[in-house]
Amino acid sequence: MSAEATNPGVPLRKRSRPRIDLRRLGRVALLGPVSRDRLPDAIGHVAEAHRAHHPDADLTILRRAYLLAESSHRGQMRKSGEPYITHPLAVTLILAELGAETTTLTASLLHDTVEDTDVTLTQVREEFGDEVCYLVDGVTKLEKVDYGAAAEPETFRKMLVATGNDVRVMSIKLADRLHNMRTLGVMRPEKQVRIAKVTRDVLIPLAERLGVQALKTELEDLVFAILHPEEYAHTRSLIAASEGGQDPLAEIAESVRSTLREADVTAEVLIRPRHFVSVHRVRIKRGELRGTDFGRLLVLVGEDADCYAVLGELHTCFTPVISEFKDFIAAPKFNLYQSLHTAVVGPEGAVAEVLIRTHRMHKVAEAGVVALGNPYTADGATAPHQAEPADGERADPTRPGWLSRLLDWQESATDPDTFWTTLRADLAQDREITVFRTDGGTLGLPAGASCVDAAYAQYGDAAHGSIGARVNGRLATLSTVLNDGDTVQPLLAQDASSGPSPEWLGHVRTPTARIAITGWLDAHPDGAQPHGRPVEPRPQHQPADETANGRGRADSRAAGVVVDTPGVPVRLAGCCTPVPPDDIIGCTVRGGAVTVHRTECPAAARVKTIGRAAVGARWNDTGDWSDPADYRVTLVAESFGRPRLLADLTEAIATADAAIVAATVEPPSEQRVRHTYTLQLPDAAGLPGLMRAMRDVPGVYDVSRAQQPATTV
Predict the structure, then answer these.
(1) What is the pLDDT at residue 546?
(2) Catalytic annotation on 327?
C-alpha cells in the first residue's frame, strides 16, 4: 500500500505493487473451490503481500475464510458488474499490504458475510474463534453508516464503542471505505458527494488519529476529486507537467547520499512524491509552486541515534531552514507518528524538505495501528478487554489517550445530535499538544486548549471548582491557551459546591470539558446546587486573576469601597486593578457578591451584557485601608527593544517604592517589546508619578493601565 498520489482514473505514478485486477479475480472466483491442498488463486495477491510482512504466517485460516466468503457471496454482484467476492478480496489486500496480522485479514475476508449472506455470527465463531467473530460483528455494526443523516449519530456512536474495544475493527472499516471510494464512479453523483462528505468529516480524521497515513492520503485524494473537481484537475495538470522534465529533487538526493556516505552513515535516500491534496495545500500556502514542492526526500536508517546523525550531517553540509525543523521522535504525535522534519538548501538554491526516520518508524507512519500487529496478544493468548493502569491511560498502545477520552465523553453525551456535532468538531482538530502535569504525568489536548480543558482532563467533574492554574510555575487565568510542552497545574477551590461559569464555554476545546460544563449549567440554571444552597462567589466569575493576585476578599470595608448594596461581599477586579481615585462601578456576580471594576474596563461591559446588574460604587472617604495589598495595580509598558531595558524599568519601579508582584515580557515583535507588571504601591496617590517615571526610561514610549486579565499575576 503506497501513500503516494493516487488518481481515480489512470494512475500518474507507478505504485510499489500493482492494484488488484478485479476482472481477473472475478473470473477466478467464479471457478469455485479448489482442492484442499492448494491456496485459491484469487487470494494469491493477499498471500504474497501478507508473507512480505509475516514470512512465517499460516495461510490455512485465510484459505478457509476465502472459501466460506466465496461460497456465501456466490451469485452476488457489485454495482460495477463484478462478482461481490472481489470487494472483500480487495479490502483484505489493502490491509495485507499495510502489514495487518492474520486474524485481521481473516475477519476482513468475512466482514460482509453476516450482513449480506446467510452466514451467522455463531457459524463464524465456531469455525474461526471468538476473536474473528468479535471483529466481524464490530464491522457489521458499521455497515449502515452511510444511510440516512438521522441514523448517522447513533451509528457512529456504535462505531466508536466497537473501535474502542478493538481498533482492528476501524482498520477494516477504513480499508472497506477506501475500496468503495475507488469504485464510487458507478454511483449517482449526489450519492458520491454524500459519501465523500462523510468520509471527509469523520473517516479521514479517524484514519489520521489511528496513524494510517497510507489510507488517509488516498482517501483524501479520492474525496478531493469528487468534492472539488476543478481544483483536482488543476492540481493533476501541475503534477503531470512537473513529471515531464528533470526532477530538481534528484540532484539534492544524490548530494545527500554522497554526504552520508562520506560520513559513514548507512541510510536509504528516497524521493517521496506528494499526493494531490498535499500539492494543493502547498500551492495555496505559497501561491506558486517550486520544482521541489512536488515531493520530499525520505531518509531511512536503522536506529534512532542514526536519525540525529543524519540530521547533524545535513545541517552541517547544507544550509538548513531552521523554521522547518520539527522533532517528532523525542515528542511523538498523538497518532504514534515519529520522524525528524527539516528542510535544506540544495546546491542550486532549491529548498528540499527532508523526512528522517527509521524503517520501523516508517512502517508505523504508513500503517499506524495496523503495523503494530495484534494489540492483545503478547504471547499468543487473546485478551480482547485489557485492564487500565492506575493513571487512567490504556495499556494498549493501539488505544491512544484521545480514543479513551472519546469513549468517555460519548457516554456522557446522551443526545445523539450533541454527540454527532461534538464528534465532528473534535475530529476537526488536526493537531494535538502534550502538556505535563506536576506529578510527572502528561495530558494530550487539542491545539488551542486552555487551562479549563486541562483541569477537566485531569480532574473530571471535580474541575467544576477550578479557580485558576499555574502554567510553567506561574499563575495564569483559566482562559490561558496552552502550548505544546507546557507544565500545567489546575488550582481547585476548597468549596465542593462550586460550579463552572458559562464564560468557560468560550475557552474550551475538548468535548470532555464542554459536555461537563454544559451538563452542570443545565442542571443548575440558577447557579444553585440541587439541595438549594447557593454557589459561593468564585473568582473565575470575575476575570480569573482576582484570586491569583490576592484581591478577592469579601469585606467591603477592607476593600476600601462602599457599594449601594450594603452587607454584600466586595472584591476589587484583578483585570483592571482599580485604585483611588479611579472612577469605579460594581458588577453583581453569582452568589450576590459585587466585583468592582474601573468604569472603562471591558470586563465590566461583558458582565453587563450577560444580564448582571450594575451596582453603584465609590471609594471609602475615610481612607481606611486595612491592607497595603489593596493598592495593587497592573501596568503595561510598551517600548523599543534595547540592552538593559528591563533593568532600567525595574530600577525606576523600585525608586518609586513600588514592589513587583509579578511581571511578564512578551517576545519582541518588530523591535517592540511589551512588559506587563503587577505592582504593589505604598500609596495609591503615587501611581501617576510611578507611570511618569516608567515613561521617562529611554526607549519606553507608553505606559498604561491594564484593561484585560494579565497572563500572570
Answers:
(1) 37
(2) no
